[in-house]
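Quick entry, no commentary yet.
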Amino acid sequence: MTTLSVNLNRVALLRNSRPLAIPSVSRAATLVLEAGADGITLHPRPDQRHVRPADVRDIALLLERWPAVEFNLEGNPLHQLMEHVRAVRPQQCTFVPDAADASTSDHGWDLAQDGARLRPLIEEAHALGVRVSLFMDADADAMAPARALGADRVELYTEPYARAHGGPQQATSLARFVQAAGAALAAGLQVNAGHDLNLDNLGDFLRAVPGVSEVSIGHALIADALEFGLSETVRRYQALIRRATLPAGAGAAR
């Protein structure tokens, strides 16, 4: 079944708006784990506007009590991400080509331009025992080169699909993701997905796109938590994932 990794950056962003320690990123992590999340994602940025180095360390310590849960650190390895990877050795790091001043992730890697710089960083992560996922656009032709660099997974950047969902371009956009995922699997990569996936569009995506190992969801999940509460929101996402990915009649309960 596709696993759910909850991105807690938005919790940190709210905390950072006041000189207080609330809401607590560690407490939010505990709640989503108790509700059944399979992983925690943090995206530490150089300007620390979201999670801070202390949050990365705190979550790493927390997850020592949750050995079945995966810790995913994402960010630009050409900036400061590798400092965090070396410090806590998460199960997975997702390399994202963000500019230092980017408001959010908005495109995948151009491997023709950046591949030579990424290769030694992928090798370093592997030497630390960390799986590497590359944040990529839904370009089927880029999947084999990603594998040739040494990547273990790709995370397909799903905002174009989310924008098209419910409109006349939904099928065309979704077809690109189906082709990209198929090419990734054929190249020996596993497939993650993330960015603007939510309770309205996630099911259609998972029913169509083959072999999605993990979805990473933050902004929409935290927004939904304002209505449903954090624990109930995680349960709703997990129930949706089960309905979309498990064969009819298979394992109704976690």
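second:
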Amino acid sequence: MSTFQLIQTQARKLAAGQLLAATDCLSLGSRAAIDQALYRMVKSGQLVRVSRGLYALEHPAHAQALAAALADKKGGLSVKKTTSPRKMALAKTAHGRVLLDLWARGEKTLTRTEIKIATADWTPQDIDAYLSLLPAWLRVALLQCHAKAKSVQLGLAGAYSWSNPQPRDELLIAKVLDQHRFEDMVRVCAHFGVPKVRRVFRQRVYEPMPRASVSRMLGNIAKGLKLSQQEAYAQS
């Protein structure tokens, strides 16, 4: 049996309120395999993470119950712990328990890749339902992981931000200028303004012919956008 299956079998034997420690599973596989198995079980709703390295079949309803279980695991030491209302609310649903596990990993150790994998099939509505329960750092990271690529938001034809969905404006403009697709240059000029695009252009290094071509296109785009604005003003 795999480490995951062995831990799954052990977890099914837990009584209500009983805790399973990661250290209880050391004989079942490597620490990496154990951590991965426990993470998968939390994500799928089979376990709830109640404290660092401690898991249960269901989240304790009261802080006193958690304190008693933790004290038992730690050799009878007196433990005082309070569970925040936000964490208790998250613990009630499968998605919430996934977020609890991400939260517990901490801002310094959690990666964007882990967030993307854990929430890959979530809808915008799923995300919105939990934002108010999350700490600011996790809320921002979750939104950034699910944000549409900036190039998609602008309707650009080229794949300018496949490796970085949210590049700095100047970097995206530079990439569009380097490719100098006319329709994409029109879109970035309309969105960021011709002056800003020209500032980025002046900082780029091109061969004489490409530079002349891009300069000419920017001039035509500027004239076209100005004419469009004048026509819109006249019709208003």
